[in-house]
Every structure is written in structure tokens, then in C-alpha cells.
Design a protein that fits this description.
Aspartate Aminotransferase, domain 1; Aspartate Aminotransferase, domain 2; about 425 residues; 2 domains; four-stranded antiparallel β-sheet; seven-stranded mixed β-sheet; 14 helices; alpha/beta
Amino acid sequence: MKYDISRDCAKQLDQQDMLRQFSDHFYKLPNTIYMDGNSLGLLSREAEESVHRVIDEWKRLGINGWLEPEIPWYNYCEKLSAMEAPLVGASPSEVAITASTTVNLHALVRSLYAPQDSRTLILMDELNFPSDIYAVKSILKSLGYDPEARLRLVKSADGRFLSEADIISGMDESVALALFPSVLYRSGQLLDIHQLTKAAHEHGIVIGFDCSHSIGAVPHSFDKDRVDFAFWCNYKYMNSGPGGTAGLYVNQQHLPAEPAMAGWWGYNKERQFDMKLSFEPAPDAGAFHIGTPHLLSAAPLEGSLILYQAAGIDKLRTKSLQLTEYLMYLIDALVPEPESGYSIGTPREAVRRGGHIAVEHPEALRINEALKQRGVVPDFRYPNVIRLAPVPLYTNYIEVWKTVQHLKEIVEKKEYLNFSKKRGPVA
């Protein structure tokens, strides 16, 4: 698109925005520009309504809520799975809305990691979100293996990005399972899932992806790409609330499955209340449920998914790319690196970019604090990254324009010098 640095350009982009009406569905913080939707999405009125409805069902029906509402609680997560499956290019039977991101990682990796003979390694990368590394190391320890000997980490050449070629070069006959992020949580790089999955299968490797930073921002085609498994949180771009119930995907070729972390909610639902002591897993991804679903943590996702159905993930992706492209354009034009110290730590190419922009600066920590004092909500990632996430459902172009004006004024006036270099416990 054609941009210029004027405020009028931002206003014109907002007038042309075919999704602008969705912003009114969200509770936007007063006098605030919210650029942290890649950490926690905002509350929508639809999500609020679905929570209130479930609470009202609890109030009116008590335990009868499991069977009597229009959407019985007993099948509630299956309803959500059917609604979310199109976002990842899967059939509803391959998706489960359950537990949390890291619990789902444990359940999937423990179930699909099958070392044998010389094929024993798990392949990951050094830029992955640390929780995934912690989880896989603990899995290896629990199986009696030395994590340092069984875990191979792909290195990054620059500390920002991963090369698909480097990842594929780490795939050989010693690797049993590979696990990578779809979008790198710091830089926002989008990996080529199709290419990596194809290469993994050519080497006989089961491959999965942590899609926490892409679900709701990037359309996926898990079935078409033949991804083996995936998991994600729903509280970032999916706006399901803090700690909202997570999701997972298991390709049909791995179903039915005997989950390594079995629990009664993963039982075949037709006979779940027979209460037999032998476990009969559900024939679909529901087998990876463990305990009773957290209804009040799952309910906001229903309302959010209603908005996704109305907007369409492809249109949201188009706007997301335009918002981030516009953000990078303004940074380049208004605060060029030689003068300001700002640089872009996110791939410029649309096909390699997720939903947020990593703005790098030697004083990122203190600039981040200055932004917050000015009413902009970003987030900081050690040591020098300010992440800005213009979310297409509720961020407008004038907010992007204003954010860059704040970045410009903070360095020009050296406002960051008013803040401590000491980082707080939560970034």
C-alpha cells in the first residue's frame, strides 16, 4: 500500500478499513493505546456475554447445567473445537479445547515421542519460548533420559531469526520428534510450517508446533500441511481472557490415540459414566482431555470465536499485515536508526511475519516504561526488544501513527532517562 507520514494518511486508512466496526465490540482501555494483544487480548462484549450466560446457567440449573442448557456443558468444549478448527485448517475431531499450553505440550509430546534404536532425539531451537524447553527437558528426565544428550537445539545465526535450512539440516535419522514455534515470540518471525513438516516427514520425524503467537493472527492449514500435532493458548490474539483454556490439534493419522496423560474427561464420551477402571480413550482429539473442563475459563472463547466467524481469519490476516507494514514504514520514516537508535527486529517480508513487530533499541527497557507513562501499552523482552502488536480486531491506524509519534518524542526529549534501568519482575 501507499503510505505517507501524515496524520491524514492514518485517518484515510481507517476510513477504508472494512473491519473497523469490530473495534466497537471491545472494551478498550480509556485514554490508552493498547499494543499488547500478543500477550493478553482485550475483552469483547461477546466474550463477556458468553461468560455471563454460563454463570447464569450455573445459578439457575446447578448440576443440571451439564445437560440442560442450549449448549450442554458436557459437550461445551466440543462446540468450541468445532468453532476454532477452521482457524487452523482442521476438522473438529482433530481439535480439543482443553487445559493450558504447557499441559497440552506435555500430553502431546509424551504421547507422540517414540524413541527407538538410534532414533532418540528431540529437535527444538534456542529461540523457543523457555516454557517449552523446560517442559521437554522434564519429559526426558521423567523417562529416565539425560536431557542434554537427548535434546538438540538449532542455533540462531543472529539471535533474532531461525533459518529453515538450519532447522532442516538438524533433521536426521537420530531425531524422533521435532517441536518448533510457528511464530518466534521475540522477533515475530513466522516459520514455514509446510516446508518444515515436509522435510521432517522425509526424515521419518514426527513434528509439532507451538502456535501461541499465531493462532488468531495467522491462518493455518494443519491438515493440508500434514502437521502431526500443535498446541496454543487462546488468551493472546484469541482474546479469551487471562489463563483462558488452551487448544490442541492431533492429525487424524494419529487417531485414535492412547494418551500418555490419561484422565477421565478423555474417555469415550458415550461410555464415560460407566466408570470402568480400564481406560477407553475417545476416538478423536478429545482423548487428550485430562480433567473436567474449566467452564468459566473456556466460556469467553465462545464469544471471541463468534467475532472471528463474522470477521474471517483471511481478512484479519490481511489487515494485520497492513498494520504491521504501516508501523514499520512510520518507524523507518520518522525515527530512522542512525538518528534514533531504533531498528526493526522482525522480518520485512509478509510471508515471514507474524502479528507483532519487535522494535529494538539499546534503551528499550526505559523507553518501554516511558511509553506506558504516555498511555501506550507495549511489552518488553530482554535485553532490547519492545514488542508492539496492533491487533486487527480492535487496533486502528491512527493508534499506530500515535504510537510512533510517542516513540519519536521519547528519544528526542530523552524522556527515557527519567526511568530506572532496573527491570521489574514482570515485563
